[in-house]
């Protein structure tokens, strides 16, 4: 009994200290000037603010001035107007994520007031219009993420104007159903281009030449999860990959063929150029089909010739009789012409026919 009382007394002495140890966990971190937005929450410090699935219709205005990373996801921003984040300047904001926010329009100077912004993520938004000056005011922007953001409308020309004055180093265009290399979206100095999960079947010679332009020779390209068509048109791209370009395509060894059926799933770099045959739009092989067509046509002609000869052979007596009759008719006709000629040429016949002599 005495021992139990001593143990209880000992544990009681530690309770105050345990309460002091747990006290910091129960007190929220102090907010920076401006506090944390009511529709958002600040992680660890106000330098990281996340506003997720709050159905915001405009960016929050009470953001902490010291915020470095801002993430707004699952809202309904629809339009980013001019100076959308300039209600309170955010001089230290470096990363802005606006994913799944139903943004369809970005107006001129929409990012004004974010002079230190280096990374902008607009992925998973149905973009329909991007103004030519949409990214003016963010001269330090180096990374632009537009994954699954170009599916609603073709925006290549608009984006080309919008990024013309930027010094981008990384551009992400994954999951946009692109069928060709967006050459107009490749500014000089670009170092990384993400084209995964698009609809690229090949890179043609002209596109490969654009990748070898002086300002893009250091560009690294990712092409995974594209439906590559391993036909004869892919030979220039395969040669480009083999000629020391593997370092420029980090996922080159994982690229696989999606067509034709005979090569589906084959590793691209394990194929030989001469093994890539020409394939038409329906997935057939024109070279082999053309050869087969000629063979079939020759067989048909041979059969027709054989049938004709058989008919002649089976009717040889009738044909012989017909030829004999034809010869006799021609002979009678010629004899008739000869007789008339002799009659006309005989002078006695001509004088007898003259009256009065």
Automatic annotation (TrEMBL):
GO terms for cellular component: plasma membrane. Pfam families: LRR_1, LRR_8. SMART domains: LRR_TYP (SM00369), LRRCT (SM00082). Keywords: Leucine-rich repeat, Membrane, Repeat, Signal, Transmembrane, Transmembrane helix. InterPro entries: Cys-rich_flank_reg_C, Leu-rich_rpt, Leu-rich_rpt_typical-subtyp, LRR_dom_sf, Wnt_signaling_inhibitor. The chain crosses the membrane at residues 294-314. Residues 226-279 form the LRRCT domain. It comes from the Eukaryota. One of its GO terms (biological process) is negative regulation of canonical Wnt signaling pathway. Residues 1-32 form the signal peptide. SUPFAM superfamilies: L domain-like (SSF52058). This is Trophoblast glycoprotein like. It comes from Strigops habroptila (Kakapo).
């Amino acid at each position: 009994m005495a021992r139990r009382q001593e143990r209880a007394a000992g544990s009681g002495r530690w309770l105050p200290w345990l309460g002091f140890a747990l006290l910091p966990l129960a007190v929220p971190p102090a907010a920076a000037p401006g506090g944390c937005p009511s529709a958002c929450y600040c992680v660890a410090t106000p330098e990281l603010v996340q506003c997720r699935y709050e159905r915001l219709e405009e960016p929050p205005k009470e953001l902490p001035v010291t915020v470095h990373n801002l993430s707004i996801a699952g809202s309904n921003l629809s339009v980013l107007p001019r100076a959308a984040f300039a209600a309170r300047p955010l001089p230290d904001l470096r990363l802005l994520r606006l994913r799944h926010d139903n943004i369809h329009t970005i107006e001129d100077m929409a990012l004004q007031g974010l002079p230190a912004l280096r990374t902008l993520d607009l992925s998973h938004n149905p973009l329909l219009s991007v103004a030519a000056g949409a990214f003016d005011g963010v001269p330090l922007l180096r990374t632009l993420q537009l994954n699954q953001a170009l599916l609603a409308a073709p925006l290549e020309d608009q984006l080309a104007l919008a990024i013309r004055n930027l010094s981008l180093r990384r551009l992400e265009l994954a999951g946009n159903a692109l069928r060709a290399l967006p050459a107009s979206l490749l500014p000089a100095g670009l170092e990384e281009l993400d084209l995964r999960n698009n609809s690229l079947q090949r890179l043609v010679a002209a596109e490969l030449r654009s990748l070898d332009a002086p300002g893009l020779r250091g560009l690294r390209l990712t092409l995974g999860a594209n439906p590559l068509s391993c036909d004869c048109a892919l030979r220039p791209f395969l040669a480009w990959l083999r000629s020391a370009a593997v370092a420029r395509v980090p996922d080159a060894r994982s690229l696989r063929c999606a067509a034709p059926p005979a090569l589906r799933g084959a590793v691209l770099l394990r194929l030989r150029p001469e093994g890539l045959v020409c394939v038409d739009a329906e997935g057939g092989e024109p070279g082999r089909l053309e050869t087969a067509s000629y063979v079939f046509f020759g067989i048909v002609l041979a059969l027709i010739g054989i049938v004709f000869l058989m008919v002649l052979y089976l009717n040889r007596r009738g044909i012989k009789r017909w030829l004999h009759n034809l010869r006799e008719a021609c002979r009678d006709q010629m004899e008739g012409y000869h007789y008339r000629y002799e009659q006309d040429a005989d002078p006695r016949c001509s004088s007898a026919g003259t009256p009065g002599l």
